[in-house]
Amino acid sequence: MKKILKYTWLLLPLLAVWSCVEEYRLEGAPPTEADANFSFQSTPESDNILRFTADGDFFMMNWDLGNGQTGEGKTVTGTYPLAGTYTVSLTIFNSGGSVTFSRDVVIAETDPLLLDRPIFNMLTGGVDATEGKTWKIDASRPGHFGVGPNPSSPAGNFPEWYQAAAFEKEGSGMYTDRYTFFLDGFRFVMETNGFVYINAAQGSNFPGAFDPGVGDLSAPYEAPDGLRWSLVEAEGALPELTISPGGFLGYFAGGRTYQIVRLTENEMFLRFVDQANTDLAWYIRLIPEGFVPDPLPEPEPEPINPDVNFTVNDLVGNGRKVWMLNPAAGAFGVGPSRGSDAFFPNGQDISGDRPCLFNDLFIFSSNGSYVYNAQGDVFGEGYMGISDGCQPESSLEGTVGAAWASGSHSYTFTPGTPTTFPKITVTGTGAFIALPKAYNGGEYQNGPPRQNESVTYEITAYDATTGQMTLSIDISGDGSVFWNFVLVPAADQSLGLSELTRNDLIGDGEKAWKLKPAAGAFGVGPVPGSDEWFPSGNDISGDRPCLFNDRFIFNDDGTYTYDPRGDVFGEAYMGIPDGCQDADALVGTVGEAWGAGSHQFSFTPASGGDNAKLSVTGTGAFIALPKAYNGGEYQAGPPRANETVIYDVISYDRTSQELALTIDISGNGGVFWTFVLVPAND
């Protein structure tokens, strides 16, 4: 009984959620009171929680549930912890006008348990805090104010595009304002101390707005009396805190409803949508008046003395090493410092939610090649041009994110020093480790990736016993937001080796292949899979149609046929002019043997740490490029008699049937031609 009496002076405002109107009715005649009739019933949670339902459907339906709060839509839910009589009104609108219908609702008994909720107590200090609880912006710590995308990316709710430094907005009015929440009557008091901080787009709504010199606008403003707050906790969504008109928190961007991302005794982290640009979501972090957060650590030599003992041999093992994300909490996340996932997923293990991410392979070889193998599926996001969530890798084909699919790139390794972390830099169009969108100093908002981009990751920790390697990349450019990944060696180090078989090559007995008409299908660079030197990420299929229509045909009987389909791409070493030529132009020249013809082939499956190999034998036998042979290039024809040319199979995607071949023309692992073939289905 004592607890019940303790709450009798409180009145809880409506916690309202509105449903979508299933259909709208526009009529010429105004509605009647009968049209605005409604019913209500108690919910299973409590007799004091009522669900109100309008009898009809109208273009606009506004509710006043008798406790100072409002709702919209056909159905709303209200909570009434205290006994009493409440007048509930529904106003409906159509093209002919509006009408209001009201009825009294009697709450027979008080339910004090509806008041004693942790979220209310943390916000207001609870029933014993007769003076309420006062909050202020947490100005002394970085990230107290910032902006990110709306809707939030799968990375989570945090200001991933911009985070204010400590005291960056000094003089704006943001840091001197105070906000007090009372449980008694759900009152809200806003003390502006003269002026407030507002979005530039809201300046016309605040007479006397001026430039404070820290961005956006400040304006003189005194908040009205009689402000209230309400809080909605809809299932499956962040709680929503709403301040009545005339009040707001921290920074005014046109709205007064705030999503509570995090609320503890000493911290409130809020998200709110910019009403002038709904593609943006703003964030503010508040702390209680009088609370002193832990001091920031003293600046250390930059970078922090890493003491990370990691060498290139740890990265590549015996010449080739396959890495995967560690399927555990902390392996994939973003936060305000190296190794942190405080922004997302905040200590949660997401490997079960994103299996298509945690099966990805990141393969480093001693020859400087880096291979990303998605193993047939990817975790999609909107910036990649595909739907969010696990998707077949083939869904990337033809999208702005196609370059982020499985592929071969190059890497360099920089050893650590007493004051620098070891680093891995991957280079190539679409080259990345773990997360495609993250690059040094930012994140892609839309594909495609920049051509031949280099992305550098710091190795911030390494455990030689477990093999765990932690990578960090600063996407803020100022040390305030880091993506962090923990990789471990794959238990099966044969993963990622070509799964190509002889049957894949010959199909049902004969199979024709052609160059893939896309960027990266024909090029030369310093490592397998690279086209850094030519054509540097460009798609040249349109410039050389006579090359991209060639057919490379493998038969079960071991014969290999080259069919140029009536034209060839000539070069001087062949004895013909450069560019597309009729195939007959080769007749009688030093390059005649490079024309149409039949040869022999052999196939060696992948074994141990060795890739599969494809060999063609015969005078003038080649795949894709006549002049390339093992250890060199022809400067002039004719080709050597009965020559064998061996190509390494660096990748094969069984889903798309893309087959990537490479050949070292330097003889010392310094220059590679790479060709990507696909089945010719015509």
TrEMBL record:
Domain named PKD: residues: 56-107
Entries under Pfam families matching the protein: PKD
Database matches in InterPro entries: Ig-like_fold, PKD/Chitinase_dom, PKD_dom, PKD_dom_sf
SUPFAM superfamilies: PKD domain
Record's protein name: PKD domain-containing protein
Species of the source: Lunatimonas lonarensis
